[in-house]
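Hi R.,

Here's the chain you asked about this morning:
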Amino acid sequence: MPPTNVYIIGAQCTGKTTLVNALRSSFKTTSDISPPTIVEEVARSVQRVHKFTAADITSSPDRCLALQTLILETQRDAERAALRDEQWIISDRSGLDPIVYAQRYLGHETADAMLTSAAWQELRWRMSTSLILVCEAGTNWLVADGVRLMPQDRDDWIGTHREFCQALERVGLPYDVIPCTLAGIDDRTAFVWSKWRAAALRDSHGPMLEANGCS
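And the predicted structure, written out as tokens:
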């Protein structure tokens, strides 16, 4: 049985990619199991290839829906490719991310429709047996890069974090929160591996138990 997959998700600018890169590097010291395949963030490549901008998300409902649908389907394809040889993955983002943003900018009805898609059903099944970690908003990492849609202010940023937690609870996926007070990358990496080892132990004895830190 392959090791437990890991998903690092959450609001913008919460250190997700930095953490994934640190996990990739730290795993090189572990030799008793096969290394994970990293599923890189797909949203940026989708935006670049299909000529989307951050402004499309708020200015054009049709463009926003097209973007989120493409991200969802591209995430599915990326995971399929990564798991083709029965490896395990650490994923920078997840299939839930575009659904959260669809709900935020297009409403519940659109998000509900995405939740019925074949792409989401496949991704949800995989996530249900994985370790999901939500990076909490609240650190001083908000930096506009011209690609991502930035939150309006700190309250909006924290609101996005809560929406991720609520979405996970709504679809019945257990998760843990990496607290924003845990700012050091070594501490964050150690936190993930401790949860990963605990998840592996639970998987060997029964279903994962929900343990999170969202309010």
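Residues 37 and 85 are 10 Å apart (CA to CA).

Let me know if you need anything else.
M.
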